[in-house]
Design brief:
The complex is a heterodimer of chains A (226) and B (312). By secondary structure, chain A is α+β, with helices and mostly antiparallel strands. Helix content of chain A is 24%, strand content 30%. Chain A has helices spanning 21-38, 63-75, 102-109, 113-121, 215-220; strands at 2-7, 10-14, 42-47, 51-56, 87-94, 125-130, 137-140, 155-158, 162-166, 169-172, 177-179, 182-186, 207-212. In chain B, the strands form five sheets. In chain B, strands 13-20-17-18-15-14-21 form a seven-stranded mixed β-barrel. In chain B, strands 7-6-9-4-1-11 form a six-stranded antiparallel β-sheet, with no helix packed on it. The chains are: A alpha+beta (226), B alpha+beta (312).
């Protein structure tokens, strides 16, 4: 555990060096501890793979006091339930029409398209971080056999809901945007909807699993093939 | 009761004081780049702190008024006219139904704030009206102002004709010292690299927007090219592999994987965002204690700047 100054009203807490499950669980548990310890003096938090950026109200608390408060709070043991998060199932229509990179991924891994789908769908993922764009969740870890680097040239348009792989991470594009990840399918559930509360069905620390669905199910769940 | 946008200018955005507590959804803060000029605009109009105003970049905004109210333009010196009659900046003016409000182009500085008595009545999104175009959030449908947009405001009966005395108005110069709180990965930068960063003059590059200001100058090299993505605080100084520092601003992405030297002091960042390409910037290290004192002084000054009332 390392606390480091970042700016005039912020500190960053490092809880490990790598993107792994154990570190992410510590991050998730620490988020709750920090929220309780700083309560309304906390302005915002940015949990990520192995760190938490902590922004506080400098008019009411200073760096030294925040450091002391957090060191004390984080030294106390947390319950075993902390850090586990919820488990959320997201339906995915895996197909050549929604996953244009399935075949290149299969060829690269010397697997069949069906095997690529199976490896992607039969893995439990953890939400390591949310960022890049509203609602964009970085999920890990993808089975090393189907891990693949980003495209050399990002696509101008990746449809909303696209499920994609980059290295050992996977994600669901929350809205249409440019993107360089390898597309394997499409999810009909909106990952970011400002009109809903909560706007996102998942949070950092949650577990996500993907459930393969048919074309008909995808369409009946409101999926868009455009 | 609304203002109709006759011409949006280069980039005009509805902004309140910004969005807080939504980083976990990947939403950045948004909000006025020159928070001091924005704050003073609301103070002059006797509005509640953080009332929604228009951030005008470079200039060119034209509005048509549909009901009597008061307006005020602060920040970068852009010529203000009502029905082609010139009006002072940093001053509250009465405008009438049918009046044409024109904001010309800035003579120095980049951002100005046009406020209305009572503030614009915009439905908040995630607790704020701040427009972040990259995210499509805030303002009117997450977009910059466009011709034909209608900006509602409340009807108020009274508003004093306040102005900021000339001696208190900021001057928009072409050089600046930005105070920096060293932090983040600063230990990964060699002593030589840091000395260079804090000694050499940097130039504001052409590549500047609401996400970040890219500087040009001696390269500051870091021992590593990338880190595990982590949260980015406002004003963070990020150094990509080319060694040219970027000061990250209100519309930055919430997480990123480039090493950072620390973060610039917010009051200096506000002034930085008034600089145009070619302006000279020096960076000076300060401690968190000094930063805190500087912020307190700046807050007190903004709250207590004496405003005067115009007598007709």
């Amino acid at each position: 555990m390392k606390l480091q100054v970042t700016g005039e009203n912020s500190l960053i807490l490092y809880l490990g060096e790598d993107a792994d499950e154990a570190t992410s669980a510590r991050v998730h548990a620490a988020v709750a501890t920090i929220e309780t310890a700083l309560s309304d003096r906390l302005l915002d938090l940015v949990p990520s793979y192995a760190s938490i950026l902590i922004l506080f109200d400098i008019q009411r608390i200073d760096h030294i006091t925040v450091m002391k408060t957090l060191r004390k709070a984080l030294a106390e043991p947390t319950t075993s339930a902390a850090g586990k998060g919820r488990t959320i199932a997201l339906p995915v229509y895996y197909s050549r029409e929604t996953g244009v990179d399935l075949e290149p991924l299969a060829a690269r891994a010397s697997l069949s398209v069906e095997q690529v789908i199976e490896l992607h769908a039969n893995t439990g993922y953890r939400v390591f971080a949310i960022g890049f764009a509203p609602g964009f969740a970085y999920l890990g870890q993808v089975d090393p056999r189907i891990a693949a680097p980003r495209l050399d040239t990002p696509r101008q348009r990746v449809p909303k809901g696209s499920v994609a792989i980059a290295d050992r991470q996977t994600a669901v594009y929350p809205s249409e945007s440019p993107g360089g990840w390898n597309l394997v399918g499409r999810c009909p559930v909106s990952l970011f909807n400002p009109a809903q509360d909560p706007a996102m069905p998942i949070a950092v620390g949650d577990q996500v699993c993907f459930e393969p669905i048919s074309r008909a199910q995808f369409l009946s769940l409101g999926g868009d093939l455009g | 009761m609304s203002m109709r946008v006759s011409h949006p200018g280069i980039l005009s955005l509805l902004q309140d004081s910004g969005r807080n507590g939504q980083h976990r959804l990947g939403l950045s803060n948004g909000g006025p780049l020159d928070s001091e000029a924005f704050h003073l605009c609301n103070r002059l109009l006797q509005n509640p702190t953080g009332s929604t105003a228009i951030e005008i970049s470079a200039g060119g905004l034209q509005l048509q008024c549909t009901a009597d109210t008061w307006i005020c333009l602060t920040g970068a010196p852009m010529p203000l006219s009502v029905n082609d009659n010139e009006h002072d900046n940093w001053t509250v003016h009465r405008v009438r139904e049918g009046d044409a409000i024109k904001v010309g182009f800035s003579r120095a500085g980049v951002r100005a704030y046009l406020g209305v008595a009572g503030g614009f009545s915009i439905v908040p999104s995630f607790g704020s009206t701040a427009t972040v175009v990259r995210e499509g959030i805030g303002g009117l449908c997450g977009k910059a102002l466009n011709t034909g947009d209608s900006l509602p405001y409340p009807v108020l009966k009274v508003c004093k004709s306040l102005f900021l005395p000339f001696r208190e108005r900021p001057r928009y110069l072409n050089s600046l010292t930005v105070r920096v709180i060293p932090g983040y990965q600063q230990r990964l930068f060699s002593r030589v690299a840091k000395r260079r960063f804090f000694a050499a003059p940097y130039t504001v590059s052409e590549r500047c927007d609401r996400m970040g200001y890219r500087m040009q100058g001696p390269a500051v090299n870091c021992a590593i090219g990338g880190i595990l993505s982590e949260g980015i605080c406002p004003g963070a100084i990020q150094v990509p592999p080319d060694g040219q520092p970027i000061i990250l601003l209100n519309d930055r992405q919430t997480i990123g994987g480039y090493p950072k030297l620390g973060a610039a002091l917010s009051t200096d960042v506000a002034r930085l965002t008034q600089l145009t390409a070619g302006a000279k910037v020096h960076f000076a290290p300060i401690t968190t204690d000094t930063a805190r004192r500087a912020l307190r002084l700046s807050t007190l000054r903004l709250l207590n700047l004496p405003l005067e009332e115009r007598r007709n």
